[in-house]
């Protein structure tokens, strides 16, 4: 499913669908199998009144199976994405927008380069990857914690997780 992102925004088009998490190769990297979840997504284009800026509003919601960083058991994590993507028509315009708006367009918005051949499902997958928490955990772990990790331990040190990731690549 490919769109011309600027034209999509100008025409106020909308798309929606469902995505099998198991078919998302990039999102699924390092995640446990199987991935039974589905993500419901929608994409809507609009032109901002006043500035004339072209925007894509991305929404997605669904469960992704991850490994709990406290008990190391699978956890079906509910991801929710709601982001607005401001489309720049050139790299120069993108740089200018970023420079002008030093703090960015807001916490749930971002500027990106317009793409005449935007692969919609890749965009949805990108946003889901960005929404993944760094160290997901059960609110309450179902079983006893593994040896050496006391139940209710504070979250894993980001440095330890990073070291484990780096180690895994060799
Ligand atoms: Zn857990």
What's this model, at a glance?
The chain has 170 residues and is an alpha+beta fold.
Key attributes of the depicted protein:
170 residues, alpha+beta, 4 helices, 7 strands, binds zinc ion
Number of helices: 4
What percent of residues adopt helix (DSSP H or I)? 10-25%
**Unreliable residue runs:** none
What structural class should be given to the helix and strand makeup? alpha+beta
- Integer count of domains: 1
Q: Largest sheet at a glance? A: 5 strands, mixed
In this entry the ligands are:
zinc ion
Assembly level: single chain
Which strand order do you get reading across the main beta sheet? 2-3-4-5-6
Number of strands: 7
Specify Rg, calculated over alpha carbons.
19 Å
Shape: elongated
Strand fraction: 25-35%
* Distance from first to last alpha carbon: 36 Å
What letter string, H or E per element, gives the SSE order? Answer: EHEEEEHEEHH
Overall mean confidence score, pLDDT: 87
């Amino acid at each position: 499913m490919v769109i011309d992102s600027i034209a999509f925004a100008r025409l106020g088009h909308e798309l929606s669908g469902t995505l099998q998490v198991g078919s998302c190769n990039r999102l699924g990297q390092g995640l446990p199998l199987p991935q039974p979840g589905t993500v419901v997504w929608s994409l809507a284009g609009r032109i901002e009144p006043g500035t004339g800026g072209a925007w894509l509003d991305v929404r997605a919601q669904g469960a992704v199976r991850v490994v709990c960083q406290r008990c190391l058991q699978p956890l079906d994590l509910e991801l929710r994405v709601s982001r607005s993507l401001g489309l720049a028509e050139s790299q120069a315009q993108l740089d200018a927008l970023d420079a002008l708006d030093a703090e960015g367009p807001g916490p749930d918005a971002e500027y990106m380069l317009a793409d005449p051949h935007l692969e919609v499902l890749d965009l949805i997958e990108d946003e889901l990857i960005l929404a993944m928490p760094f160290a997901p955990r059960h609110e309450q772990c179902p079983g006893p914690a593994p040896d050496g990790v006391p139940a209710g331990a504070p979250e894993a040190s980001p440095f330890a997780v990073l070291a484990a990731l780096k180690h895994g690549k060799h």
